[in-house]
Every structure is written in structure tokens, then in C-alpha cells.
Amino acid sequence: MMTDISIQRRPKVEVGDWAAGLPPLLAQILARRGIAEAQQLDLGAKQLPHFNLLKGTDVAAKILADAIARQQAICICGDFDADGATSTALMVSVLQALSAQRVSYIVPNRFADGYGLSPAVVAQAQQQGAEIIVTVDSGISCHAGVAAAKAAGMTVIITDHHLPGAQLPNADVIVNPNQPNCEFPSPNIAGVGVAFYVLLALRNELRERGIETPNLAQWLDLVAVGTVADVVKLDGVNRILVQQGLQRIRAGYCRPGIAALLQVANRDPQQLQASDLGFAIGPRINAAGRLDDMAAGIECLLAQNLAQAQELASQLDALNKARRNIETEMREEAEAYVAQLNADGDRLPAALVLYQAGWHQGVVGIVAGRVKEQCHRPVIAFADSDDGYLKGSARSIPGLHIRDVLERVHSLYPHLIERFGGHAMAAGLSLAHENLNEFRQAFTQQVEIWLGDEELTRTIWSDGELDADYLQEPFVRQLEAYGPWGQGFPEPIFDGEFRIVDHRVVGERHLKLVLETPQRVVVDAIAFNIDLKIWPDDSVQRLHAAYKVQLNHFRGRTSVQLQLEHFYALR
């Protein structure tokens, strides 16, 4: 698939006194990511903002404390992704640890129930005898479900982080950093982070009532997983939450479910990085919600012993392998369609709207994301659903707020979209099958208005060229120590020229290389999912590459390895 790619070096920025003692390169890297004072590098839990800054936590805490005292039935309504699963497991586990004896959970089935607290989910909660419903990672747009719960005499607490609409649901209390008049400094906190803050407020409320409570830090492993897996911006608050959770996991203080998921993913907890939470643990939890029932993921996270957790983690691993097989087939079909669009070397359209009969509704989001990464275009992938509508999952590129575009299409052509929701980089929608072609035209037309050539060119931002002295284990460990890196706090990428010493294909589509720097230092490198029509090429002796520098731990040996993000031949 053809897409324009540009490697640009980040401009030099002013570095203050806070960087005294740091190597100039590292100081530049951090300053470019918004670090302006030493306190921002302190990722200790004491740096977290107080829970009373998050609007509604005090009211939610009192309702839950009273419910525990009366032993009322509390039902947690979750969501079918990793953020929703970790939020549900966190809320259930902590409430039980705080002496709540009647706690249950419901996760809507992606295919039967749809998203969030619907009237159908409320009916299920009623059958369980629920008196209080607590939503996690959902609820802010669930007006009908909240109304049904209130009509049934239930108390409703919404904890969510998604953007609210013009009107808020009629819940007893809403805890959401994005609601009006909320002073919490991190609007980017994930759903699991919001749930954690509600529980911090509850713990404080119980302590003021003279009740002993455990330290909630022991649940930060769940918070870290959900935060990274949901790809929220790693601002100051989220970096602290992730770092604290990572430190607990590396030290062996994590729940059996996470330990078992790391085992099936062949990840060493002591060497764990934030990216491992997103690429190893998150997809296995998500696979349950995509192909089956998210309850398997939640039960794994709630498991009380390693043997039980290992059995559930194996199920999740099998589901993830099945998901990968389905995804591969769907992605290849999508790539074939896109290849036809630019078969003559023409530039791709500004947006891609994909559909194929037989595509799996639970996997279209991943396919949309993969094609977006390869083509650098906003992508919507559709699949058939049981209700007769096409269900679409949208993924965007920087510079395009995908939900705003869908809202614009809906306002101009109100007959096209049945329903939609989401945020800047991802959204979901439904439309009638017969409206697909008209929608494709309308959506692409709006994207063309919003995006120019600059936005449609993928830019890889480099922190510059690394001298051979930096391609050593001490520097890489120093880089790791200033993480976690991720969305909004990007892992450093460097670029430079190399001589190819050796290269070979490993796995199905990965290129393993041995490269030599201009200073005659040899280093290993790997490029994932290469185009086998272009590489390997024995005639190429030199290349220019944009790369991440990392440590490769293999058979008890640690070495520096470059992960090539983009490279091209130098003739």
C-alpha cells in the first residue's frame, strides 16, 4: 500500500535548570515531551492529584459507604474492552475487600446487548436483585438505561471518561473528568483511573467512619493495564498511575491473572515495559470481548490463585490466536481492496471505508487500526450485525477528530447514519446496508475538506541521530527509566544511515538485520511486517532508517537492538 512518509527531526527546545546533570540528548528528549520542571519527573504516588478534585467522588463515596453498611446489592456494569474489564475487576475486587458482600457485575455482550447501560442490561441487573448500579468506563451517553434503572427504583452511579453530550443522564451522581465544572487536572484519565479515584474517595469515607481499610496501591497493576490498553494520553497523572502499576508488577506484586497473562505471552515481569501491557496483556483480555464474552477476561483478573488464573489465561490466549487468524484474513482482504485503489500508482483517497461480507463484527476495529497505520488515512471498517445494520469501527489520524466528522456528516445527511459515538481518534457507528456507498462518498468528501496534503503525509518525528556511544546498554536503560512511554509521551525515535552487514526474513514477514554505523559499530535490528515484494533485496548495501532503540533479552543474554519503524534503500 502506497503512502507518503516523511522523516522529520524534532526542533531543538529550550531546556531549563531542572535538567542539570542529565545528558544533553536525554534532556532534549524530555523537554520536547513537555517536561519543564523536575517535579514532572517524580512519578511517585504522592504526586497524584487529590480525589476531591474529581467532581462527584464525594457523593459516590457516601452512597457506596452506606450501601456497604446496609449490605445492599451492588451491580457493576462494565464494558467489553480491556479498560472496561480492568475497571470492572477493580471495582468488584476492592468493594469486596472493603466488606461489601453482595457485589455482582454485568458486561454487555458486544453482539446481543450493544454498548453500555441499556434497558436490557438494567433488566438483567433487576433479575440479580441489584439495588445500586455502578457503571465503569461507560454510562455518560446511556440516557435510556439510566432512566430504566431509576424507574425500577435503583440508585445509579456513573463513572466514565468519555466525552458527554449536550445533556447528561439523570443518574444520582456522575464521576467523569470531562463533565462540566470538573476541576480534575487530567481529562485524559482512563475509565479504570476514574474507578480508582472513586474507590480512593470511598476508602477515605470509610476511614472517617472509623473503619479499617486496605491500601489501594495493591490494585495499581489493574489500573496500569487498563490505562495503557485504552491508549489514553500519558499525561502526568496517567504516567504516575502506569509507573506505579509497572513497578508493582516488576517486583512480583501483581494479581494472579496478570501474572498468568504474562506467562502465556512469554513476558518477563522484571523486564516489563508499558508497551508490553498494550501489546501482550491488553489484546488477550480484549479477545474475550471481541469473539466471545468479556466475563472470561474479568474472571481471569479476579482469580484468587495462579492455577485458576493460568487456566483462564490459556483460554484468553486461545481466543487471541483465533482473533489474530480472523484479523489476518480480514486485513488481507482489506489490503487487496486498497491495492486496487492505487494500482496505477495514484494517490489513495483521503479516507477509506471498507466492507466485506463475512467480516467479524468484533474485529473490524483492529482491522481499521491496522489499515490506518499502513495507509495513514482515516479508516472505517464495517461488518454485518444481527440487527440488520452494518456496524462500523472508525480509526483516525492526527489532525482529524473522527467523531466531529461523523457529526458533520450526520447533520448534512441525517438519513445516513443510524447512530454513532466516540472521540477524536476512534468511533463507532451503525448504518443501513443500502446507505453504505452514499455514506462512503459523504464521509470521504468531508475528510477532504478537513485534511490537506500535510496531514495526509505520515510524519515520523525523530529525536536525531545517535552516535555509536549511545547504542549501548547503559543509555538504553537510562531511556527506559524515564518512561513510561506511550500515547502523548512518545517513545524516542532516532534516524540515521547504516551499512547492511546481513539480513534475513524471520517468522512470516519480519526482517532481521545486522547493521553497521558510520563509526563501524555493529548492531542488531528488526523490522516487523515488511513488504516481501521489496525486501529483502541483496542489491541494497546501505539504508536510512528511523528506529527505536531497545534491549533484547534472549536466552539469558541482553543486547541492544534497533526496531526499525521505517527505512529505505540508499543507492
Automatic annotation (TrEMBL):
UniProt cross-references to Gene3D superfamilies, sorted A to Z: 3.10.310.30, 3.90.1640.30
Residues annotated as domain RecJ OB: 463-566
GO MF annotation terms: 5'-3' exonuclease activity; nucleic acid binding
Domain DHHA1: 352-447
Residue ranges of every copy of the DDH domain listed in the record: 74-227
Entry coiled-coil feature ranges: 302-336
Alphabetic keyword roster: Coiled coil, Exonuclease, Hydrolase, Nuclease
Family assignment from sequence similarity: Belongs to the RecJ family.
PANTHER family to which the protein is assigned, alphabetical: SINGLE-STRANDED-DNA-SPECIFIC EXONUCLEASE RECJ
NCBIfam families: recJ (TIGR00644)
Descriptive protein name: Single-stranded-DNA-specific exonuclease RecJ
Organism this protein belongs to: Pseudidiomarina andamanensis
Gene that this sequence comes from: recJ
